[in-house]
Amino acid sequence: MKVLIASLPIGTGHDIAARALTESCLTRGFEVEFSHHLVGRARWETAMYFLTIHRLPALYAAAFRQADRSEMVWRRHRQNWRRVGQNLLDEVYQAHRPDVVLATHPFALSAWAALRERRPSLRLVAVLTDLSVHRFWFEPLADAYAVWLPEQVEELRRYGVPSERIWPTGIPIRASFQNGNLFSRYRQGPIILLGGGLGFGPYYRILKQLSGLPHPVLAICGHNEKLRWQLDQHRWPERVTVLGYVDHMPELLRQSRMVVGKPGGVTAAEVAQSQVPWVVTHWIPGQEQINRDRLIAHDLAVRGDTNLQAVAIELLRDGSFARQKMLEGQRLWARPLAADHIVERLAGMTSKS
Description:
Blueprint: E1 2-6, H1 13-27, E2 31-35, H2 43-55, H3 57-69, H4 71-96, E3 100-103, H5 106-118, E4 123-127, E5 144-146, H6 150-158, E6 166-167, E7 191-194, H7 203-211, E8 217-220, H8 225-232, E9 240-243, H9 249-255, E10 258-261, H10 265-274, E11 278-280, H11 287-297, E12 302-303, H12 308-316, H13 321-333, H14 338-351
Parallel strand pairs: 1-2, 1-3, 3-4, 4-5, 5-6, 7-8, 7-10, 8-9, 10-11, 11-12
Helix pairs in contact: 1-14, 2-3, 4-5, 10-13
């Protein structure tokens, strides 16, 4: 089977999910093409996204809600990306001849739908990387949708998607998160502050509060060298360590005592599998606000934006009700094999075509 995995690096989660799917496809001997062919056509949207979430978050939140509510905005958006697909992707299709396209970004989904319409044998699957279904994810020509939570199933049904086309598999995460113990191995592991690829949020203020706790803290900045440099400018207690990219994040999360950060969808899936209490302290308006509320509703995280130290003290305490409740919620909702389950369904889908 030939699989093309279409992503866009607007945020980091879409690409992480795409690479997890790539791993799973290669394990099964499928031919895989990881596609960034639409990046050049998304430059304006990417620039506007980063500008508004950093400088005009209230405007971004309002635009996000309006686009979700308006069928007219959705139709215009879909038509625009279908034109992109018609103009750009036919050559890509001819070069790779995929049987299935897995789209981990809604823009890629709409663009490849133009090819799906002209080539009935091509299958198109949407792989959602957040915890809600924004209207831009709705594509009438999609053959299936991979989602995590039951709320997403209901949202897709309201758009008229048949139940058999909705796969409650979870969000794909890297295979390395499947290994190891379910619970943190060391009772006194560090608090992990996740900086995120976008550098969005009041990280200095958050780390300042965490540094006041009698507990080791690791601030992980990933590839965000600007954030690492900014945090390194301050004098922290010896129990605080600021790091850049680490290549052993799955093991680090499993050994941590608590995680602090923003509620990205892929991060949520990784933390749930790691079985470690999670405090969300800030979020991108729009999709991550919904992520936050649904994580809390399913006992996968708690808010700590106004009372971080008090929340942390409670979650760090052995046997606390809040800690045990969250670990149970994570054990219930963890989906470490999401990528494998999505890929397993592809063979059955193409055999029916």
